[in-house]
Amino acid sequence: MPSPRSSRERRAGRPEFVSLLSQRGPAAPDSPSRRRESGGSAPPPLPEEDCMRLNPSFVGIALSSLLAVDLWASKRLGVCAGEASAWGSARPLLKVVEVSGHGIPWLLGTFYGLCQSDSSAAREVLLNLLFALLLDLVLVAVVKGIVRRPRPTHNKMDMFVTVSVDKYSFPSGHATRAALVCRFVLHHLVLAVPLRVLVVLWALIVGVSRVMLGRHNVTDVLFGLLLGYALYSVVEYCWLSPLNAPALFALWTH
Ligand SMILES: CC(C)=CCC/C(C)=C/COP(=O)(O)O
User: Fold this and answer.
1) Lower CB count within 10 Å: N or C terminus of the chain?
2) Which family does it belong to (predicted)?
Protein backbone atom coordinates (compact mmCIF):
# COMPACT_ATOMS: atom_id res chain seq x y z
CA MET A 1 0.00 0.00 0.00
CA PRO A 2 1.65 3.33 -1.01
CA SER A 3 1.86 6.04 1.56
CA PRO A 4 -0.84 8.75 1.20
CA ARG A 5 2.00 11.27 0.94
CA SER A 6 3.56 9.78 -2.19
CA SER A 7 0.19 9.39 -3.93
CA ARG A 8 -0.71 13.02 -3.11
CA GLU A 9 2.67 14.22 -4.37
CA ARG A 10 2.24 12.35 -7.63
CA ARG A 11 -1.14 13.99 -8.24
CA ALA A 12 -0.03 17.45 -7.15
CA GLY A 13 3.07 17.32 -9.34
CA ARG A 14 1.25 16.40 -12.58
CA PRO A 15 -2.02 18.25 -12.89
CA GLU A 16 -1.78 18.15 -16.70
CA PHE A 17 -1.78 14.34 -16.68
CA VAL A 18 -4.96 14.13 -14.68
CA SER A 19 -6.85 16.41 -17.04
CA LEU A 20 -5.25 14.88 -20.15
CA LEU A 21 -6.07 11.28 -19.28
CA SER A 22 -9.46 11.90 -17.72
CA GLN A 23 -10.57 13.32 -21.08
CA ARG A 24 -10.17 9.84 -22.54
CA GLY A 25 -13.23 8.48 -20.68
CA PRO A 26 -14.07 6.64 -17.50
CA ALA A 27 -11.50 3.86 -18.05
CA ALA A 28 -8.54 6.23 -18.17
CA PRO A 29 -5.78 4.74 -16.00
CA ASP A 30 -5.45 7.63 -13.54
CA SER A 31 -9.07 8.82 -13.49
CA PRO A 32 -10.78 9.20 -10.09
CA SER A 33 -13.25 6.40 -10.96
CA ARG A 34 -10.41 4.00 -11.79
CA ARG A 35 -8.71 4.86 -8.48
CA ARG A 36 -11.99 4.17 -6.61
CA GLU A 37 -12.35 0.81 -8.46
CA SER A 38 -8.87 -0.29 -7.50
CA GLY A 39 -9.52 0.60 -3.88
CA GLY A 40 -7.17 3.60 -3.87
CA SER A 41 -4.10 1.56 -4.77
CA ALA A 42 -1.20 3.10 -6.76
CA PRO A 43 -2.15 4.04 -10.33
CA PRO A 44 -0.63 1.89 -13.09
CA PRO A 45 2.38 3.31 -14.89
CA LEU A 46 1.56 6.03 -17.38
CA PRO A 47 1.44 5.11 -21.07
CA GLU A 48 4.81 5.62 -22.69
CA GLU A 49 3.52 8.17 -25.23
CA ASP A 50 2.44 10.53 -22.42
CA CYS A 51 5.80 10.28 -20.66
CA MET A 52 7.59 11.07 -23.90
CA ARG A 53 5.48 14.18 -24.41
CA LEU A 54 6.84 15.63 -21.19
CA ASN A 55 10.48 14.73 -21.82
CA PRO A 56 12.23 17.22 -24.10
CA SER A 57 14.31 15.29 -26.61
CA PHE A 58 18.08 15.45 -26.71
CA VAL A 59 17.89 17.23 -30.06
CA GLY A 60 15.49 19.81 -28.57
CA ILE A 61 17.82 20.53 -25.67
CA ALA A 62 20.86 20.71 -27.97
CA LEU A 63 19.06 23.13 -30.31
CA SER A 64 17.86 25.40 -27.50
CA SER A 65 21.37 25.47 -26.03
CA LEU A 66 22.88 26.28 -29.43
CA LEU A 67 20.37 29.10 -29.91
CA ALA A 68 21.10 30.49 -26.45
CA VAL A 69 24.86 30.47 -27.12
CA ASP A 70 24.21 31.97 -30.57
CA LEU A 71 22.19 34.88 -29.15
CA TRP A 72 24.71 35.51 -26.41
CA ALA A 73 27.74 35.40 -28.76
CA SER A 74 26.01 37.52 -31.42
CA LYS A 75 25.21 40.21 -28.88
CA ARG A 76 28.82 40.21 -27.64
CA LEU A 77 30.20 40.34 -31.19
CA GLY A 78 27.85 43.10 -32.35
CA VAL A 79 30.50 45.68 -31.53
CA CYS A 80 29.54 48.02 -34.41
CA ALA A 81 25.77 47.74 -33.97
CA GLY A 82 25.49 51.49 -33.34
CA GLU A 83 27.65 54.59 -33.31
CA ALA A 84 27.80 54.37 -29.51
CA SER A 85 28.87 50.69 -29.51
CA ALA A 86 32.35 49.59 -28.45
CA TRP A 87 33.73 49.76 -32.02
CA GLY A 88 31.11 52.22 -33.28
CA SER A 89 33.72 54.29 -35.15
CA ALA A 90 34.32 51.33 -37.52
CA ARG A 91 30.62 51.20 -38.46
CA PRO A 92 30.92 53.42 -41.59
CA LEU A 93 33.70 51.18 -42.93
CA LEU A 94 31.64 48.03 -42.31
CA LYS A 95 28.72 49.65 -44.08
CA VAL A 96 30.95 50.00 -47.16
CA VAL A 97 31.66 46.25 -46.85
CA GLU A 98 27.90 45.75 -46.60
CA VAL A 99 27.31 47.57 -49.90
CA SER A 100 30.06 45.49 -51.53
CA GLY A 101 28.00 42.36 -50.81
CA HIS A 102 24.59 43.85 -51.57
CA GLY A 103 22.45 42.36 -54.35
CA ILE A 104 21.91 45.59 -56.30
CA PRO A 105 25.55 46.42 -57.20
CA TRP A 106 26.13 42.78 -58.10
CA LEU A 107 23.03 42.52 -60.29
CA LEU A 108 23.61 45.88 -62.00
CA GLY A 109 27.34 45.22 -62.46
CA THR A 110 26.75 41.77 -63.96
CA PHE A 111 24.01 43.07 -66.24
CA TYR A 112 26.23 45.94 -67.40
CA GLY A 113 29.12 43.53 -68.02
CA LEU A 114 26.80 41.30 -70.03
CA CYS A 115 25.73 44.20 -72.23
CA GLN A 116 29.36 45.21 -72.77
CA SER A 117 30.79 41.70 -73.30
CA ASP A 118 32.28 41.07 -76.70
CA SER A 119 33.33 37.42 -76.36
CA SER A 120 31.09 34.39 -76.16
CA ALA A 121 33.06 33.03 -73.17
CA ALA A 122 32.48 36.26 -71.19
CA ARG A 123 28.80 36.22 -72.12
CA GLU A 124 28.41 32.64 -70.95
CA VAL A 125 30.10 33.30 -67.61
CA LEU A 126 28.21 36.55 -66.94
CA LEU A 127 24.86 35.08 -67.91
CA ASN A 128 25.43 32.25 -65.46
CA LEU A 129 26.52 34.71 -62.78
CA LEU A 130 23.28 36.66 -63.33
CA PHE A 131 21.31 33.41 -63.06
CA ALA A 132 23.22 32.51 -59.86
CA LEU A 133 22.52 35.92 -58.27
CA LEU A 134 18.80 35.73 -59.07
CA LEU A 135 18.56 32.14 -57.82
CA ASP A 136 20.30 33.21 -54.61
CA LEU A 137 17.85 36.10 -54.05
CA VAL A 138 14.84 33.81 -54.53
CA LEU A 139 16.21 31.03 -52.33
CA VAL A 140 17.14 33.38 -49.48
CA ALA A 141 13.72 35.09 -49.68
CA VAL A 142 11.96 31.70 -49.50
CA VAL A 143 14.02 30.48 -46.52
CA LYS A 144 13.64 33.81 -44.70
CA GLY A 145 9.88 33.68 -45.32
CA ILE A 146 9.62 30.12 -43.98
CA VAL A 147 11.90 30.47 -40.93
CA ARG A 148 10.86 34.05 -40.01
CA ARG A 149 13.61 34.52 -37.47
CA PRO A 150 13.64 38.16 -36.36
CA ARG A 151 16.84 40.16 -36.66
CA PRO A 152 18.82 40.68 -33.43
CA THR A 153 17.21 43.24 -31.13
CA HIS A 154 20.37 45.37 -31.20
CA ASN A 155 20.18 45.76 -35.02
CA LYS A 156 19.46 49.25 -36.36
CA MET A 157 17.42 48.79 -39.54
CA ASP A 158 19.29 51.37 -41.62
CA MET A 159 20.33 49.10 -44.50
CA PHE A 160 20.72 50.18 -48.12
CA VAL A 161 17.63 49.00 -50.16
CA THR A 162 15.78 46.10 -48.56
CA VAL A 163 12.66 44.13 -49.50
CA SER A 164 9.96 42.95 -47.11
CA VAL A 165 11.52 39.56 -46.20
CA ASP A 166 14.70 41.37 -45.20
CA LYS A 167 13.14 42.09 -41.84
CA TYR A 168 14.01 38.44 -41.16
CA SER A 169 17.45 37.27 -40.24
CA PHE A 170 17.94 33.62 -41.24
CA PRO A 171 19.94 33.13 -43.41
CA SER A 172 22.12 36.15 -44.12
CA GLY A 173 21.63 37.12 -47.76
CA HIS A 174 24.98 38.88 -47.81
CA ALA A 175 26.71 35.74 -46.55
CA THR A 176 25.07 33.47 -49.17
CA ARG A 177 25.93 35.91 -51.94
CA ALA A 178 29.52 36.32 -50.72
CA ALA A 179 30.12 32.55 -50.61
CA LEU A 180 28.39 31.99 -53.96
CA VAL A 181 30.23 34.80 -55.76
CA CYS A 182 33.54 33.78 -54.18
CA ARG A 183 33.24 30.19 -55.44
CA PHE A 184 31.98 31.37 -58.80
CA VAL A 185 34.82 33.85 -59.31
CA LEU A 186 37.48 31.36 -58.22
CA HIS A 187 36.16 28.85 -60.78
CA HIS A 188 35.51 31.12 -63.74
CA LEU A 189 37.96 34.01 -63.59
CA VAL A 190 41.64 33.61 -64.22
CA LEU A 191 43.17 35.51 -61.30
CA ALA A 192 46.64 35.76 -59.78
CA VAL A 193 47.02 34.05 -56.39
CA PRO A 194 46.99 37.31 -54.33
CA LEU A 195 43.70 38.26 -55.95
CA ARG A 196 42.25 34.82 -55.25
CA VAL A 197 43.21 35.21 -51.59
CA LEU A 198 41.62 38.65 -51.59
CA VAL A 199 38.34 37.23 -52.94
CA VAL A 200 38.21 34.62 -50.16
CA LEU A 201 39.07 37.28 -47.55
CA TRP A 202 36.33 39.55 -48.90
CA ALA A 203 33.73 36.77 -48.52
CA LEU A 204 34.84 36.08 -44.94
CA ILE A 205 34.88 39.78 -44.04
CA VAL A 206 31.37 40.24 -45.46
CA GLY A 207 30.21 37.33 -43.25
CA VAL A 208 31.92 38.58 -40.08
CA SER A 209 30.74 42.15 -40.69
CA ARG A 210 27.10 41.03 -40.62
CA VAL A 211 27.47 39.99 -36.97
CA MET A 212 29.63 43.00 -36.04
CA LEU A 213 27.05 45.38 -37.52
CA GLY A 214 24.40 43.63 -35.41
CA ARG A 215 22.47 42.64 -38.55
CA HIS A 216 22.65 38.91 -37.86
CA ASN A 217 23.25 36.18 -35.36
CA VAL A 218 26.29 33.96 -35.87
CA THR A 219 24.18 30.99 -37.05
CA ASP A 220 22.48 33.13 -39.74
CA VAL A 221 25.89 33.88 -41.23
CA LEU A 222 27.30 30.35 -40.90
CA PHE A 223 24.22 28.86 -42.55
CA GLY A 224 24.30 31.61 -45.21
CA LEU A 225 27.91 30.83 -46.09
CA LEU A 226 27.12 27.11 -46.34
CA LEU A 227 24.01 27.77 -48.42
CA GLY A 228 25.90 30.04 -50.84
CA TYR A 229 28.69 27.48 -51.13
CA ALA A 230 26.19 24.70 -51.89
CA LEU A 231 24.22 26.90 -54.28
CA TYR A 232 27.26 27.24 -56.49
CA SER A 233 27.11 23.46 -57.07
CA VAL A 234 23.48 23.84 -58.23
CA VAL A 235 24.53 26.63 -60.63
CA GLU A 236 27.34 24.47 -61.95
CA TYR A 237 24.90 21.57 -62.41
CA CYS A 238 22.39 23.76 -64.31
CA TRP A 239 25.13 25.63 -66.22
CA LEU A 240 23.55 27.62 -69.07
CA SER A 241 25.26 27.35 -72.44
CA PRO A 242 24.39 28.18 -76.07
CA LEU A 243 23.60 24.46 -76.41
CA ASN A 244 20.98 24.13 -73.64
CA ALA A 245 19.64 27.72 -73.66
CA PRO A 246 20.14 29.04 -77.24
CA ALA A 247 17.28 31.58 -76.97
CA LEU A 248 18.85 33.19 -73.90
CA PHE A 249 22.21 33.54 -75.62
CA ALA A 250 20.60 34.89 -78.81
CA LEU A 251 19.38 37.85 -76.72
CA TRP A 252 22.97 38.91 -76.01
CA THR A 253 24.49 38.23 -79.41
CA HIS A 254 25.05 41.47 -81.26
C1 LIG B 1 16.82 44.40 -53.17
C2 LIG B 1 17.82 43.43 -53.57
C3 LIG B 1 18.05 43.18 -55.01
C4 LIG B 1 18.51 42.71 -52.67
C5 LIG B 1 18.36 42.83 -51.21
C6 LIG B 1 19.68 42.57 -50.62
C7 LIG B 1 19.60 42.54 -49.13
C8 LIG B 1 19.28 43.79 -48.43
C9 LIG B 1 19.79 41.38 -48.49
C10 LIG B 1 19.73 41.24 -47.04
O11 LIG B 1 20.96 40.76 -46.62
P12 LIG B 1 21.13 40.24 -45.16
O13 LIG B 1 20.16 39.11 -44.99
O14 LIG B 1 22.56 39.77 -45.08
O15 LIG B 1 20.88 41.37 -44.25
Assistant:
1) C
2) Belongs to the PA-phosphatase related phosphoesterase family.
